[in-house]
Design goal:
By secondary structure, the chain is an alpha+beta fold. Among the domains are: 91 residues, no CATH class; 194 residues, no CATH class. Helix content is 75%, strand content 8%. Strands 1-2-3-4-5 form a 5-stranded antiparallel β-sheet. Helix 1 packs antiparallel against helix 2 and helix 11 packs antiparallel against helix 13.
């Protein structure tokens, strides 16, 4: 009962809800149909408009590709234009460098030619070169081409070279050997220059022309013999003649003028040259004295010693003593002592003779040590002078720098001259010591040989007596 009641009540309550659901369902279906119709119309419109839009997009893509290609072509053209411009600029820089290089070469040639011309050519040829250099410098300031101007210097150099090969004469003035300035004619043949004076001055009318450090004018050096002077005068007149030749181009003359005397050379050695020369003087005196002493020592003759032994073997001691009394030198003293003790044993006579040899040894070898000391000490003194000279040189460098080598010449001269004289003294001293030592040893060896010969003779005589 109750269950039926509940169902009835639910149906009564749900009936209005079913009616609303139907209405909502019908409305939704209508909306769906309308949306589907609208969707269909939109799809139809899209299908209708797609083809023109696709065509328009294709046209736009084509236009973009065209613009991109034009942009790429424009960039390529711009790059090519930049590359060409850089190439042109680099080529201009190279041409400009070549132009400067050629210009510098021409200027260097002209300046070198100006510095190497002979003093006699300065008044004419040198002034032309100086004018060319000044004109070229002004052209550089005005921005004009200076190569054409400098090329004139090359032309002048070639012309001068041609003239010198065949010889050239021109008038001018030079300083004569007496110090006077005289006019005359210059003769240039290659690098050699000669001068013929218009009139004879102090016995000189012609000579060779050299560069003088103390004068800006050409200086004439007199030629000793008469024939070369006449040859110079003949060439100045356009004739032929014999010319003097200096292969050293005046260098030998300049070296001879600057060559110091022996005393000046010694003074360059400084204070350490004094002990070196003192040792040299003393060693020379000692060596001469020792040479005279050694070479004046006489040696007994072997025949005289044999004669004394014959007298002793015969028992004639008086004749033996008289013969021994005539024997010279330390060898004679030794034989006399041997004769005096000939009655003793042979061993005693041998010891007595060797004692005499030992007594003669100090006298024979004396003063030789001083010569050896000189040979050893002189190079050391020279080395000491070298060290002090280099110290003085570095002190001068500290004060004056290295700009002028003449400021350093005193220290360098001291360093080299002391070493030179040290070796000059040491080498002869070493040779003298070797020769004198050999002579002294030869004398001592001769004495020993005679002592042995005398004692052996005595021993042989005793053997014969015993037999």
């Amino acid at each position: 009962m109750s269950r039926t009641l509940y169902i009835s009540l639910w149906i009564l309550l749900a009936a209005p809800l079913w009616a609303d659901l139907d209405a909502v369902n019908n409305s939704a279906r209508a909306d769906l149909d309308a949306a589907l119709d609208e969707l269909s119309e939109l799809r139809q419109q899209i299908r209708t408009e797609r083809i023109p839009l696709a065509r328009q997009r294709s046209d736009l893509h084509e236009e973009v590709r065209s613009l991109r290609q034009r942009a790429a072509d424009a960039r390529t053209a711009a790059q090519r234009a930049g590359v060409d411009l850089r190439s042109i600029e680099e080529e201009m820089d190279r041409r400009r460098d070549e132009n400067d290089y050629v210009r510098n070469l021409l200027e260097e040639y002209t300046r070198t030619l100006q510095s190497r011309i002979h003093e006699s050519e300065v008044a004419g040829f040198g002034e032309e070169l100086l004018a060319i250099l000044d004109e070229a410098e002004q052209a550089d300031e005005l921005g004009e081409h200076a190569k054409i101007i400098l090329a004139q210097g090359v032309g002048l150099g070639l012309e001068r070279a041609g003239n010198l090969i065949g010889g050239r004469t021109f008038s001018g003035g030079a300083v004569l050997p007496g110090g006077e300035f005289g006019d005359g004619t210059f003769v240039l043949i290659g690098p050699l220059a000669y001068f013929a004076a218009e009139s004879e001055r102090n016995g000189v009318n012609a000579g060779m022309v050299f560069r003088s450090a103390g004068s800006l004018r050409p200086t004439v050096e007199a030629v000793g013999r008469h024939s070369p002077r006449e040859g110079i005068l003949a060439l100045s007149r356009g004739e032929s003649g014999i010319l003097p030749l200096d292969p050293t181009m005046g260098n030998a003359r300049a070296m001879a003028q600057t060559q110091p005397t022996l005393w000046e050379h010694i003074q360059q050695g400084g204070i350490w040259i004094i002990p070196i020369l003192t040792f040299a003087l003393l060693a020379t005196i000692v060596a001469l004295f020792k040479a005279i002493e050694l070479y004046s020592i006489p040696m007994p003759r072997e025949a005289a010693i044999r004669e004394i032994l014959d007298h002793l073997q015969a028992g004639d001691h008086d004749k033996a003593r008289r013969t021994a009394a005539d024997l010279p030198g330390p060898g004679g003293d030794m034989i006399r002592e041997g004769v005096r003790h000939s009655g003793e044993s042979v061993e005693l006579v041998e010891q007595i003779c060797m004692e005499r040899v030992l007594e003669a040894q100090p006298r024979t070898q004396r003063f030789l040590t001083f010569i050896a000391t000189t040979a050893a000490v002189s190079p050391l003194l020279g080395l000491l002078g070298t060290v002090t000279g280099m110290i003085n040189t570095f002190q001068l460098i500290t004060v004056f720098g290295t700009g002028d080598a003449r400021n350093l010449s005193s220290g360098i001269s001291e360093a080299l001259v002391t070493t030179e004289f040290g070796l000059i003294v040491a080498i002869p001293a070493l040779i003298m010591h070797a020769l004198l030592s050999r002579k002294a040893n030869s004398i001592l060896a001769g004495l020993e040989r005679q002592a042995i010969s005398f004692t052996n003779g005595l021993r042989a005589g005793l053997v014969q007596e015993a037999a």
